[in-house]
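Hi L.,

As promised, Lycopene cyclase domain-containing protein:
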Amino acid sequence: MTYPLIVLPFGLLTVIVALSTLRRPHFGRRMAASAAAAVVLVALTAVFDNVMIVAGLFSYPAEHLTGVRIGLAPIEDFSYAVCAAFLVPAVYALLTPAMATTEPAP
């Protein structure tokens, strides 16, 4: 179960950073966009990981995995796509000055 342990810090970091943007403007809209991006990235990961595994480009030792798979791709592979979909916009929101993310008063 090595891969789940590798994924754990990335998942925790993603949750912490995403929640730290809770008070930033448009949190709900950002989370909805991140969720939509995550769905697309998971679909792409499912297709291309399975193709690459079938082609023999790489394999995963079973003793290092949870055993849950989507096709031939281990579920752990999908965590990086989901983390990226939520972490990148959250970091951007944190690096953008708060004044720049609000709309000007009428």
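Residues 13 and 21 are 13 Å apart (CA to CA).

Thanks again for sending the construct details.

K.
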